[in-house]
Each structure stands twice: as structure tokens, then as C-alpha cells.
Task: inverse folding
């Protein structure tokens, strides 16, 4: 007999479904993702720390789990909500099924939920705190857990998921550059693309690294990675580091990296009603008028009006809601985007940004040499 | 880049008649394009030879030409209209080929016309397989190994590399015409020969077999700024080897990881850029080796396609509308997403349901045709269904095919009953049989997968035999498990609510559940409702609910009780129109035209219109056309649920053909108000005995006949009537099962088959009126007893050919005035007696100077769109207004129109696509589509219709004649005219002798069995330009068949009735006098008669 499981929201709304994955009860912020492929990359994206992810695509698990497709060492979500977990998987690359994978990594899942109704609820009421329970807890017991849960705002989740010690990634063949990537919760594909496109040796350093720590590696460029949750508590320590590096080392920011760089420049962040999570977000590159279809995953955004006059040039805008999607720092070799040029999952339209990064480094080096 | 203003007028080429491989989807795309371009202020000029389309309605374009889609006719239109641009991407392969031909003739330079949407270079690069292969090589993308052959020798060389089975595809043909899979040398030679002949450039592609690989399609759009988006991914349930048009397909793709999907997406972006489709949509097909992941590109279509229509309906993203906008310069980000209104069209839809497309075949009409599926498309229509899971979606689709099935089996109509009582030997036999069946793709294999699983075959085994992905097979297995569970519960009383809920969530219909639990549909329904189990309606919104949808496009599913229907609708002003379901022979686009027109008129009159249909090709399933669209099965269960939430003031059942008519009485019994003609009258007209009473009451003469429920009764009735007799099962459309029987033995044969099929269904037996002229009359009637005849059409072929297959002409000519008046009077009496409110069609025969009423159909008939265009009056629109209480005088339609031109309707037949079938007309309808020719004279109109149907009208050369004895009396006159026109005649001995005796020169040629060179040799040597061959009877059947097959193969017009031959000769003569002219429908009707 199927074991009952629940998804309970802070406003009292709840859904009943069937347990899968690990048996547990976990609080988190409840969000939805509209990607039609890429559940494994989503599960293992550290940016989903402290979140329960609802997939809008109904059949999940169809192609199993493939070792090489992890975006970090383990899943980071606190819970996974699907309309239907596939009981078999079919793919020539796969080596495991989703249910066993989540069990092994302690992530509770719930299947059989009307995920469209969850999505519609969040769309109209906003992303909110919630709890997933598939360990026999009743709805009341789960609601109890929510009472003391404060949510992810104000938490330094990046500090929690970041690497503890620096480590290095090597390109195939000879490295032309050396990049330091500040790990706020970095997806593996950022490292892969940095290494591959340079080609570059990439030193990944913890979130709390100082400018001095970073400069000690004598990098040609610095990547500020993606990461989970609220940018303000991260900016509280990282903004100083960024301010010190701006102008000294070419810099690129992705998602959290973009937000903390923005705060360092004097910009303000705010929480979006329900965020952008999916692989179909249109972004317009204002420099060439071309639209990129992008992968996005963020609940907070930078207010493009909040920057000090003349400090940045807005380069990219989200076409769905007009929010800031990218900027270049005026007069300094630095730019950042709110979305994910590393994709994984999602379209590769924005991968050119890694080449732009290296072009920026090259011209910075050329200028410095003269 | 905003909308271009340097273009004023745009010529759109339609796709012509409905044929296998090209159906209503291009009516949908063309209609969207017309609307989109006119909304931007462009003058739109349209050409399409198909009168049954919505797009050819004169209100949709500024100038509508119902003319043959040939380079010659289009050039005439260009010369007259001088359009600034031509959009060739909305009319399928027909339009694209026509554009290529116009390009070759230098027409664009001559008249300064710009090709928009796709340039000739891009078309060539995509369509010419050698150029395409080069382009793929350049991108580093793989294609199946192989190469091009221009001769049998080339092909021999290539097949040595590819081995067997080998895939053979001719270049530049639509729907894979002439293509095939060769498993051996004999098949190889036959298919290559076919292909070399069918390809307009004499080129065939020979490829390694990738049969059994996974097959995918991506729908891509690009704007002039080089923005590219993928609208939809589609995965085929059936693996490579079955034409995608014949495959069950699923959206979104279900078994691709993000890694694989993005690789495919990257390649699609690269391909559309490399091909150079600078604006608009394309469709790209892929094969993926399931064991290694090796991906190969199969083909790209640089135009809107059948798949784009499917993708549009599947996602809510209107590809054709947007492609039209892109063609005139808009960028994707400048066009709003019509569903959210707030977000731009520059995005990729995310869908949170599963869409399944299931093809509808018509093999029952072509018992001789090869039923195996391969690279040549054979289906005539399709259904699309939406569910939250693949299982729900699949079952909804299977219940919608209009083939008497109610889901994946377990519905009382199973081919095989598998239960525990079967002995081990029987089971083993069944397993052997099923294995054999499944190893060759056939149209009903999906049902056999279920049988196989019920017999204990495993998913890995089935994968082995079918190549179907295990994920899909497991879904089917889950349905089987659910079924077995229900079976084990045994009765409805013992069924737990939760089990019922789970069954409904898996798409089981009340009928299936009833079958499994020994209960009626009604009992299951009551039980379901008392358990509080009803579907909810969710929206198709392009964005998986991320944004609020403004456009009401819904599907049902069994989910939480959250409704997404608007709360401000007004049931008192709501009218529901039930659509016509999948295209099939006998019920096609004509009925969709009626549904759309009905809806448009009611919307204009201030009603809230609701459409129910699930044919993704159609205009009726465009959410733009109505206030609410339910993409749902047209079954009683589904309709009742929609009525429950809509509570409409009325339902219209008379526009959608047989599909909604079947629901009329049950709906009425359930208390649903039916608008227009009462359902009981429909029954009265259909039921033979009631019809005879009716005819008697109003004094109409009918052929003598009777109704038989068993064999002996049939023999007795026929004996009394005297042979030949016309036999048919009651309640059919398209003459299904209809036959003319000349002798008792054949009758016994026929009855045994009919009773086998359905013993409860009576068989109607009528005296067959030989050599009678047939007439079709369409009329309108209102609630106040006003009846106005809209058109009296004369069939060109005589009685015995199904009315849907015969050519007809309007106005009728050569019918005595008294008979015309008698018809008018009879029609009036029937309409009043039946209480018709709306449309009624009556079929008459004139036999030896006397008028007989053959049948009365108090509903829209397939002639409605043709007539509407011929008389310039939108009949379906008027009919819908009559149904809500308007009177004919109020609508300004009070007298029979007198057209100022001749309109000829001709049909197109699918024999070329269904190899093995005998290309012969009879009382069972076989045509898939129709064309119209309009001209000041009958001859010219007939000639135009002939050309529109894709046949040539020969001006000189040799005519082969061979007719039966009955026709020999009339032949000399016809033959004399041919000789006068400069033709030479050859004939079989009997026919030639008859002609020579009448003083007409005619050379004798051998029949097939008489020696060589025989007539078929002459045909094959391209020495014959026209064939007149009327059936001789059973003895010489084989000979004739060989002639007709050869004619088909070498595309030589072959007339099988003398009447058609006479019309053709009139047409040839008319063209000989002066070349035809083109004129728009608007101009034809601008005269005093409009």
C-alpha cells in the first residue's frame, strides 16, 4: 500500500500524495520549477538549498539518474514534489533510479500531487514556507514544524553550501588562464565551462574568502558563482571582497554572484513574489537586440533603479517581467548576469558569456601590458 | 525591427485538396496567416482550390481565388493582382513546390514579387537532400549513412553499402509518397523504380536502416533578428520506420535527459540558421540510437507543417500566426504571447500535461491495400488528447478515434479475449500470433501491446519486437495492471472509491470500467458522481501556470477540485458546438468549416460560444475562434461533463457530421437542450421504416426497398425487388459498407459479413436505379416554416457512385423544369414535416424521367462549404442563427440564388498512397478531399477542377477506350468528339469494333492476357494521354485493374464512368477554344446576384 505523504504550506493549504525518496519531514521555502528536463541537475544545484522544489512537468524520473549529470556532490533540495514519479527509467546513460537516489541522499519526495494547483497557489500567493512530510507525520504534526521555521531570508546559505577549502580544476591540455571562482554554491558546469573555454586552471575558493585570499592566487579573472537564498547576508561579507577586487581583476558574476556584486556597487536586492525557475526565460541582450532563452533559478533580484547614477550599464533584461538580467560595471572590467549561462539544465544560448569573460580578460591584460 | 511597410499586398498559397499527408492543418495555418496579416493592414490575396476550407471564406481575405494551385494559374493571379510579396510557407508541400516552380519560371523577377517567410535557397537547401546533406556535414551533424541515386545503377551501388533493410525516399514529395522500406531485393527494385518516377527531380535517397531507433521532432521558430526558439519537442511512441504521420506521438519528449535534449536543441538552432530559414517555423526530425545515444538528423521542413499544427495545439503557441508576423518583419519579442497577453512570444513554452496524437486510418475502406505501416504515410486523420499523464492522455485519444473503441481495450470490442480460462496451448498460439503481428508495424498494434502484456509477455520482450521505448511500454503495462485490478474487484458495488478515482486518473472511461465490472456506462456514471468524482478543467497556457492565462483553452483531468474555468460566463447566452472529431473518409474538413462558421456567427450575434473537438489540425480547435475551447473527446461521457460545468442554453449537433449526431438523443434524454432540428427528426430520417412512412405522408417517391435483420429476410426482399439492389447498414456516413449487388450469391456473402460485424444493426436493401442521374439539394429552414433552397447540384457520375465521390456541378443543367420544381416542393415538404431548423440535404435520383428521393439528411452535409462559395451565401452561419430563433426573411435569405457562373466540385482519391487498392469508384466513399473549379462555362469549370485535382487535361495525343456493353451505345458520340478534337483512339477489340462499326477510327490493342505489346505496355511507354475504362463486370476484372493501376502509377487521367468522360471531353473542348481566366470569389459574387 502506498504510504501517504503531505506538502503543507504556511497559509494552511496542503496536498496529499505518496511517499518516495527518503522518509523524513523537512521545512523549507516551497518553489516551483517549469523545466521539462533536468531534474537531476536541479536536485544537485546548490542554489536550491533550503527549498522544496515542485516540478510542473508531470512525469519525473523517466530517464533515471546519470552520474556525470550531477551539478554538485549531492542533492541540496529539502524536498521534491512531483505529479508522478516514474517507476522505471529508460536511458542508455542512466545508472540509477530517482527514488533510490533520493533515498540514498536523505531527500524526501512526494508523488501524486496536483503540482499545477501547487504552482497556481504559489503564483498567486507567492513563494512561502512549507513542510514536506512522508514519514507518517500527520498534517497537524507537520504544521507544528512550521511554527518555529523562519524561512530562508536572512540566512547565509551560501556559506553553508560552499566548499570549506580551495580546490583546483584542470583543463584538458595547457591552461591559458588562471581563474579563481568564489563558491557561493557553484554548479559544476560553471567550473567545466571556465576550464574548457579558457582553457583555464580554475581555483575554487570558499564563499568567505577575502580579496587578499583571492589575490594570493594571482588570478587572471574572478568568477562569482551562483548560490542559494538571500543575497544580503552573503553580501554582508562578500561585498567588501568584491569592492577590493573591482578594477584589479576582471570579474564575472552569475546569479548570487551578480546580486552580491550589485550590492557591492551600491544596488539593492528584493525578494520576487515567486521567483524565476525554469529553462524558458527570455532575456534580451540590449547590446545586440538578440533574445536568449535562459535557464534561471532565483528568488531574489537586483533593483536596476537602485544603483548609484552611472555605476552600471544595464545589458540584459528579462522580457517576461522587465527585471534586471545583466549589467556591466561602468569603467571596470566586470559584468554579471542574473541567469545561468552554464545552463545545465537548460538552453545553451548564453554560453557566449564565458567567451566574453575571456575576451574581457584578454583586453584587460593587453591594456595592463602597455 | 517592426512590421514592414514597404509591402502592401501578400499572396498566400493554400494547400489544395485534403490528401493523405496534407490535411486540415494547412487550413488552420492559412486561416491564422490571413487573420494575422490583415490585422496588420496588409491586403491579403489567397489561392486555394479547396472549397471546404475556412480560409477560402470570402471574409477572410481581400481576394480569394478558388483556382488550381499550379504555377500557371498562380502566375495569372500574380499578373492580375501584382502582389508585393508571396508567402509560400503556409500551404504545405503544395505551396512550397508551387513557389519553387514559379521561381524557376522567373515569375518573381518578372512581376517584382518578393518571396517572404522562406527564400528559394532555403527551400532548396532543406528539400534537396544532397544540399541538405552537405549542410549537415558542414555543421558536423550526422545523417543516416547512404546517398543519392538517379538511376537503378546508382541505387544498386548504394545498397551494397547500406545493406538491407534499406530506406528509400524520393526527393520533393509530400507525405513520403513513393518512399518505402526494402527488406529484400525485389522490394528494393520496386520502390526505387516508384521513387525515381515520383520524384519531380528523379532523385531518391537510399539510406541505412535506422528502424527501431527513437524518433523525435523539434518545432523551431526564427525571426529576422536571428532569434530562435523551440516551441515544442515531440517524441514518437512508435520508433523509426513508421512515418511520423502514422506514429503515435507524444509531447513533450518523455525519455530525453537534459543533456540529450539540449544537444538536440543546439543542433536545431544550428540547422535552421544554416538552412537559412530567415523567418518563420521549421520542423526538424531526429533519430536516436537507444543503445548508444547516436543522434542523426532525418530531415527539416522549412515551413509550417502538420507537426506545427500539433505543436500549436499542444502548447497554445500559435506557430502559423507568429510565422506570418515574422515574415513581415516583426521580431519574436515584439509579438505578445496571445495566451498570457503580458509576456512576449520570444520564449519556449513549458507544458505541464502530456499530449498524445494518434493517427486515424481508413483501411476499412481499402481492404485490398497493404495495412503495414512504413515510411509512406497512410493515415487520413488524427486525434490529439491531453491528460496529466501519458496513460490518461493515451486512453482519451483512443476513445476519440471514432472507431468504436473506448480506450485501450477492455471496452467490449477486443479482438482477443484473454482470461484465465484459456488453456496453455491457446495462450502459446496467441503469443506466437501476437509476436508475429507486433514485429511488423500495423495500425492497431497499440491494442495488441495490451493483449501481449495480458498474456504475460514482458516489457523487454516487447521492446525487442517493437522497438518501443520501455518507458512507454511500462505505461501500457500500468494500464493493464489497473485493468486487472478492476477485473479482480469483479463488481461495481465492491469497488472502492479510491480505486475508481485511480482508474479515472488513468483515463479509463465509464464504459471500460462498466465492461470490467459488469455494469452499464450509466451505472458507473451514477456511482462516480455519487462518489464526487468529476473531472476538473485545466488550462492550456504555454507556461505551466507560471503566468495567468487569459485565453480559455481547457482539457479535463481527474485532479484536485480546482477549476480554472472563468466565473463570469453566462450560461443563458452560452451555446456549445460539438465538433466532428478526426478526419476520416466521409467526414472531413467540410464539417469543421460548418462548426467554425456556426461559432463565428453566434459570437457575432452576442453569444458565448463553446467548441468541443479534439482534431489538432482544424480551425475549430483554434482557441481564437470561440469563447471557450474544450480539447476533449466527443463521447457522451465527456459531453455530459462539459454540459455539467457549462449548463448551456443550447447545444448544436448538426454541424459536426455523424460524431455529434450520435450524441444528440442521449444528450436530449439527459436534459440537455439541443438547438435546431429536433434529434427525433434526425432519427426519423435515418430509420428506414420511419423514412418510408415520412415519404409516403408527403407523397415523395422512393426506390422500393426493405430492412433486413437476417440473411433470409434479405434474400427474400431482394428477390421481390429484383436485382440489382443497393445494400447498406443503417446509420452510416460516407457509404461505409454500401454495395450494389447483382446476384443472390453476392448478397448472401454481403449479409454474412455485415451480420458478423454487428448483428444488431439492420441492413437496408433498395432497388438500385441503374443509369439514374443523381441530384443533391441543400436547403435552409427556420422555426416559422420558411424553407429556402440554397442549391440544386447535379452529379456528373450516375447513381452507383457515392455522392461524396462523384463530381457535381451547380447549377444543374439539362434537368427538366418540372423535375426541378418537383424537387423544390419535395424538399419543402420534408423540411416542414421534419421540423427542420437549420440545414437539410436531400438526395434525389432521376430514373426514366421520374424523381426518386434517395435520402434526407436534416443536418449540415459535406456540400455546404462548396455551395456557400458557389452561391456567395454563408449557409452554416445562417443556419446557426436560424437555430437561435432568427427567421430566413430576417436574415435576408428568402429566395433560391441564381449563380452567374458554373461551379464544379471534383474529388481527390488516395489510391496512390494506398498501394494495392483498386482505383475504382463505387457506392462506398473513398475520396479524401475535394476541389472546385469556377468558370463561365461548364466545360471550363470542369477542366479547372480537373487541374486543381492534380490531373492533367490533355490537349492532344492518344486516348485508350474500353467500355462495357451498356456504354457502347453512347460511346460513338463521345469518341467522335475526341477525334474532332484531334485525338487518336485505341481500344480493346470489342470497343474498337463498336467504334469502327460507327465509322470512327480506332486501333485495336491487346488486353493484358491477349499478347504483347498490350494496353498496359502502351500506358507504361507513355503513349497514352487519357484512359476511358468503364467496368465490365467480374470476368474481366483483373485486366481492368491492371490498366487502372498502371494509369495511377504513370499519373494518366483514367475515367471509369462515361459521364465523367463526357464532362472531360467538354472540358478539353472548352480549354481548346480559349485559355481559362482566373477571377476571385469576391468578384464572382460582386455582380447583381450577390
Result:
Amino acid at each position: 500500500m502506498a504510504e501517504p505523504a503531505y506538502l503543507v504550506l504556511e497559509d494552511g493549504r496542503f496536498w496529499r500524495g505518496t511517499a518516495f525518496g527518503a522518509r523524513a519531514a523537512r521545512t523549507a521555502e516551497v518553489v516551483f520549477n517549469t523545466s521539462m528536463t533536468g531534474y537531476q541537475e536541479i536536485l544537485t544545484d546548490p542554489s536550491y538549498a533550503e527549498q522544496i522544489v515542485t516540478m510542473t512537468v508531470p512525469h519525473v524520473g523517466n530517464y533515471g539518474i546519470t552520474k556525470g549529470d550531477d551539478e554538485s556532490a549531492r542533492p541540496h533540495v529539502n524536498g521534491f514534489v512531483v505529479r508522478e514519479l516514474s517507476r522505471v527509467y529508460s536511458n542508455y546513460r542512466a545508472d540509477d533510479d530517482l527514488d533510490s537516489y533520493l533515498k540514498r541522499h536523505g531527500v524526501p519526495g512526494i508523488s501524486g500531487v496536483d503540482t499545477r494547483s501547487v504552482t497556481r497557489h504559489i503564483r498567486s500567493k507567492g513563494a512561502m514556507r512549507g513542510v514536506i512530510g512522508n514519514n507518517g507525520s500527520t498534517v497537524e504534526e507537520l504544521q507544528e514544524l512550521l511554527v518555529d521555521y523562519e524561512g530562508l531570508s536572512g540566512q547565509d546559505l551560501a556559506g553553508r553550501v560552499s566548499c570549506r577549502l580551495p580546490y583546483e580544476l584542470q583543463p584538458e591540455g595547457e591552461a591559458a588562464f588562471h581563474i579563481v571562482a568564489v563558491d557561493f554554491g557553484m554548479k559544476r558546469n560553471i567550473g567545466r565551462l571556465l576550464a574548457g573555454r579558457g582553457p583555464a586552471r580554475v581555483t575554487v575558493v570558499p564563499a568567505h574568502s577575502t580579496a587578499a585570499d583571492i589575490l594570493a592566487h594571482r588570478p587572471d579573472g574572478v568568477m562569482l558563482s551562483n548560490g542559494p537564498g538571500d543575497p544580503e547576508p552573503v553580501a554582508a561579507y562578500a561585498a567588501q571582497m568584491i569592492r577590493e577586487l573591482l578594477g584589479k581583476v576582471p570579474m564575472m558574476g552569475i546569479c548570487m554572484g551578480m546580486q552580491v556584486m550589485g550590492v557591492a556597487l551600491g544596488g539593492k536586492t528584493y525578494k520576487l513574489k515567486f521567483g524565476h525557475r525554469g529553462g524558458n526565460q527570455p532575456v534580451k541582450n540590449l547590446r545586440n537586440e538578440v533574445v536568449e532563452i535562459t535557464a534561471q533559478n532565483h528568488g531574489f533580484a537586483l533593483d536596476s533603479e537602485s544603483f548609484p547614477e552611472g555605476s552600471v550599464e544595464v545589458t540584459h533584461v528579462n522580457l517576461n517581467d522587465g527585471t534586471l538580467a545583466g549589467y556591466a560595471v561602468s569603467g571596470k572590467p566586470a559584468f554579471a548576469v542574473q541567469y545561468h549561462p552554464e545552463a545545465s539544465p537548460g538552453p545553451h544560448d548564453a554560453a557566449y558569456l564565458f567567451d566574453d569573460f575571456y575576451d574581457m580578460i584578454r583586453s584587460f591584460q593587453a591594456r595592463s601590458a602597455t | 525591427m517592426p512590421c514592414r511597410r514597404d509591402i502592401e499586398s501578400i499572396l498566400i498559397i493554400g494547400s489544395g485538396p485534403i490528401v493523405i499527408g496534407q490535411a486540415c492543418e494547412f487550413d488552420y495555418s492559412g486561416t491564422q496567416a490571413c487573420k494575422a496579416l490583415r490585422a496588420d493592414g496588409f491586403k491579403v490575396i489567397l489561392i486555394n482550390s479547396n472549397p471546404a476550407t475556412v480560409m477560402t471564406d470570402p471574409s477572410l481575405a481581400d481576394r480569394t481565388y478558388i483556382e488550381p494551385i499550379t504555377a500557371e494559374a498562380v502566375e495569372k493571379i500574380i499578373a492580375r493582382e501584382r502582389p508585393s510579396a508571396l508567402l509560400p510557407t503556409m500551404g504545405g508541400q503544395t505551396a512550397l513546390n508551387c513557389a519553387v516552380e514559379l521561381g524557376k519560371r522567373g515569375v518573381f523577377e518578372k512581376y517584382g514579387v518578393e518571396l517572404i517567410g522562406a527564400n528559394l535557397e532555403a527551400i532548396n537547401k532543406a528539400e534537396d537532400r544532397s544540399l541538405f546533406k552537405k549542410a549537415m556535414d558542414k555543421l558536423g551533424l550526422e545523417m543516416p549513412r547512404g546517398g543519392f541515386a538517379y538511376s537503378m545503377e546508382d541505387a544498386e551501388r548504394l545498397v551494397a553499402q547500406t545493406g538491407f533493410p534499406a530506406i528509400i525516399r524520393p526527393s520533393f514529395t509530400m507525405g513520403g509518397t513513393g518512399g518505402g522500406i526494402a527488406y529484400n531485393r525485389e522490394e528494393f527494385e520496386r520502390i526505387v523504380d516508384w521513387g525515381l518516377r515520383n520524384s519531380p527531380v528523379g532523385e531518391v535517397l537510399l539510406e541505412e536502416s535506422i528502424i527501431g531507433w527513437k524518433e523525435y521532432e523539434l518545432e523551431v521558430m526564427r525571426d529576422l533578428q536571428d532569434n530562435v526558439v523551440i516551441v515544442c519537442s515531440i517524441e514518437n511512441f512508435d520508433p523509426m520506420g513508421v512515418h511520423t504521420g502514422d506514429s503515435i506521438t507524444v509531447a513533450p519528449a518523455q525519455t530525453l535527459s537534459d543533456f540529450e535534449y539540449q544537444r538536440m536543441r543546439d543542433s536545431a538552432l544550428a540547422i535552421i540558421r544554416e538552412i537559412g530559414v530567415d523567418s518563420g517555423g521549421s520542423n526538424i526530425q531526429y533519430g536516436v540510437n537507444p543503445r548508444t545515444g547516436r543522434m542523426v538528423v532525418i530531415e527539416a521542413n522549412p515551413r509550417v507543417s502538420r507537426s506545427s499544427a500539433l505543436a500549436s495545439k499542444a502548447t497554445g503557441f500559435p506557430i502559423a500566426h507568429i510565422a506570418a508576423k515574422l515574415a513581415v518583419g516583426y521580431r519574436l519579442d515584439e509579438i505578445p504571447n496571445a495566451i498570457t497577453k503580458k509576456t512576449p512570444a520570444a520564449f519556449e513554452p513549458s507544458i505541464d500535461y502530456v499530449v498524445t496524437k494518434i493517427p486515424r486510418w481508413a483501411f476499412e475502406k481499402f481492404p485490398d491495400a497493404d495495412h503495414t505501416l512504413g515510411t509512406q504515410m497512410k493515415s487520413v486523420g488524427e486525434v490529439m488528447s491531453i491528460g496529466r499523464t501519458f496513460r490518461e492522455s493515451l486512453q482519451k485519444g483512443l476513445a476519440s478515434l471514432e472507431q468504436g473503441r473506448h480506450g485501450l481495450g477492455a471496452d467490449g470490442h477486443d479482438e482477443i479475449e484473454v482470461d484465465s480460462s484459456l488453456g496453455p496451448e491457446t495462450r502459446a498460439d496467441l503469443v506466437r500470433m501476437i509476436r508475429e503481428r507486433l514485429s511488423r508495424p500495423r495500425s492497431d498494434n497499440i491494442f495488441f501491446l495490451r493483449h501481449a502484456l495480458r498474456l504475460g509477455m514482458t516489457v523487454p520482450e516487447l521492446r525487442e519486437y517493437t522497438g518501443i521505448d520501455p518507458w512507454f511500454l511500462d505505461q501500457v503495462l500500468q494500464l493493464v495492471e489497473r485493468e486487472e485490478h478492476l477485473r479482480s474487484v469483479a463488481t461495481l458495488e465492491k469497488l472502492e472509491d479510491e480505486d475508481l478515482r485511480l482508474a479515472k486518473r488513468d483515463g479509463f472511461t465509464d464504459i471500460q470500467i462498466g465492461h470490467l465490472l459488469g455494469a452499464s456506462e450509466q451505472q458507473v456514471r451514477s456511482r462516480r458522481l455519487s462518489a464526487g468524482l468529476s473531472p476538473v478543467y485545466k488550462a492550456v497556457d504555454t507556461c505551466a501556470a507560471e503566468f495567468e492565462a487569459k485565453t480559455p483553452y481547457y482539457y479535463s483531468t481527474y485532479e484536485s477540485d480546482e477549476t480554472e474555468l472563468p466565473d463570469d460566463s453566462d450560461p443563458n447566452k452560452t451555446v456549445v458546438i460539438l465538433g466532428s472529431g478526426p478526419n476520416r473518409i466521409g467526414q472531413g474538413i467540410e464539417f469543421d468549416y460548418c462548426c467554425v462558421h456556426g461559432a463565428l456567427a453566434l459570437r457575432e450575434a452576442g453569444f458565448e460560444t463553446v467548441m468541443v473537438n479534439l482534431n489538432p489540425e482544424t480551425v475549430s480547435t483554434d482557441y481564437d475562434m470561440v469563447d471557450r475551447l474544450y480539447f476533449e473527446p466527443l463521447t457522451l461521457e465527456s459531453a455530459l461533463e462539459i454540459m455539467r460545468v457549462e449548463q448551456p442554453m443550447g447545444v448544436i449537433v448538426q454541424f459536426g457530421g455523424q460524431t455529434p449526431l450520435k450524441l444528440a438523443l442521449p444528450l436530449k434524454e439527459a436534459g440537455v437542450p439541443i438547438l435546431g432540428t429536433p434529434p427525433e427528426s434526425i432519427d426519423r430520417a435515418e430509420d428506414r421504416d420511419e423514412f418510408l412512412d415520412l415519404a409516403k405522408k408527403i407523397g415523395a417517391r422512393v426506390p422500393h426497398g426493405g430492412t433486413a435483420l437476417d440473411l433470409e429476410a434479405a434474400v427474400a426482399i431482394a428477390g421481390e425487388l429484383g436485382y440489382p439492389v443497393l445494400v447498406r447498414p443503417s446509420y452510416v456516413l460516407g457509404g461505409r459498407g454500401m454495395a450494389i449487388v447483382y446476384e443472390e450469391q453476392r448478397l448472401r456473402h454481403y449479409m454474412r459479413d455485415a451480420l458478423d460485424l454487428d448483428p444488431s444493426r439492420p441492413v437496408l436493401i433498395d432497388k438500385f436505379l441503374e443509369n439514374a442521374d443523381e441530384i443533391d439539394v441543400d436547403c435552409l429552414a427556420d422555426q416559422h416554416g420558411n424553407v429556402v433552397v440554397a442549391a440544386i447540384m447535379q452529379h456528373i457520375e450516375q447513381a452507383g457512385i457515392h455522392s461524396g465521390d462523384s463530381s457535381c456541378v451547380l447549377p444543374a443543367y439539362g434537368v427538366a423544369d418540372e423535375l426541378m420544381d418537383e424537387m423544390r416542393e419535395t424538399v419543402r415538404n420534408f423540411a416542414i414535416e421534419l421540423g427542420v431548423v437549420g440545414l437539410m440535404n436531400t438526395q434525389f435520383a432521376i430514373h426514366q424521367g421520374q424523381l426518386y428521393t434517395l435520402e434526407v439528411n436534416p443536418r449540415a452535409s459535406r456540400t455546404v462549404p462548396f455551395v456557400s462559395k458557389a452561391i456567395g451565401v454563408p449557409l452554416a452561419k445562417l443556419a446557426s442563427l436560424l437555430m437561435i430563433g432568427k427567421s430566413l426573411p430576417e436574415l435576408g435569405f428568402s429566395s433560391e440564388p441564381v449563380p452567374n457562373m458554373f461551379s464544379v466540385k471534383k474529388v481527390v482519391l488516395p489510391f496512390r498512397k494506398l498501394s494495392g487498392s483498386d482505383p475504382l469508384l463505387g457506392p462506398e466513399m473513398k475520396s479524401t478531399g475535394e476541389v472546385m473549379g469556377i468558370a463561365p462555362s461548364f466545360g471550363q469549370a470542369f477542366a479547372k477542377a480537373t487541374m486543381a485535382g492534380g490531373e492533367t487535361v490533355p490537349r492532344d495525343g492518344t486516348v485508350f477506350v474500353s467500355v462495357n456493353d451498356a456504354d457502347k451505345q453512347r460511346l460513338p458520340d463521345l469518341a467522335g468528339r475526341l477525334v474532332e478534337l484531334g485525338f487518336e483512339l485505341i481500344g480493346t477489340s470489342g470497343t474498337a469494333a463498336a467504334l469502327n462499326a460507327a465509322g470512327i477510327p480506332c486501333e485495336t490493342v491487346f488486353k493484358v492476357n491477349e499478347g504483347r505489346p498490350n494496353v498496359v505496355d502502351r500506358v507504361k511507354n507513355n503513349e497514352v494521354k487519357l484512359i476511358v475504362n468503364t467496368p465490365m463486370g467480374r470476368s474481366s476484372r483483373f485486366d481492368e485493374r491492371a490498366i487502372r493501376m498502371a494509369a495511377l502509377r504513370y499519373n494518366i487521367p483514367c475515367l471509369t464512368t462515361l459521364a465523367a468522360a463526357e464532362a472531360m471531353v467538354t472540358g478539353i473542348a472548352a480549354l481548346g477554344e480559349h485559355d481559362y481566366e482566373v477571377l476571385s470569389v469576391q468578384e464572382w459574387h460582386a455582380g447583381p446576384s450577390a
About this structure: The radius of gyration of chain A is 20 Å.
